[in-house]
Amino acid sequence: MLYVPENFNAKEKAVYLKALVYVFNLSNQNKIKREYLLLQLQKANISQEKYEAVKSACKIETLIDNIRGLDNLRAQRFIIREMVMLALADQDVTDDEIRDIYQIAESSGISSEKVGDFFIWAAKGIEWQLEGIQLVEEDL
Fold this sequence. Notes:
Elements: H1 10-26, H2 31-43, H3 48-53, H4 60-68, H5 73-88, H6 95-107, H7 112-137
Helix pairs in contact: 1-2, 1-4, 1-5, 4-6, 5-6, 5-7
């Protein structure tokens, strides 16, 4: 079974929303990250109203408790992976984003090695996209 946010229960969706909004707020609300965030929320069937309700930043401790409180390890990992994806959406990740994602993941019981794997995976995706652009643009 493919594990995607539309399969999340209500609690998992609420934590997913908080996690993405947390990273979004760390990035000073970058336009590219906002578009990515809204697309992910749409895919998860999370309404604009729910987004508006949690738009202000929650505290890192609250987010850690929320993620740790999920019973499903797949959901926890998916949320951390999506935090990484949002942090890298504009191809410019900040030290604060990296530090906080690692802290949230490790405090929630997800190893730093797994988080590192997510960052490497996301970086490969960005590299793949940039190579595709170069293939189209070269020799013109």
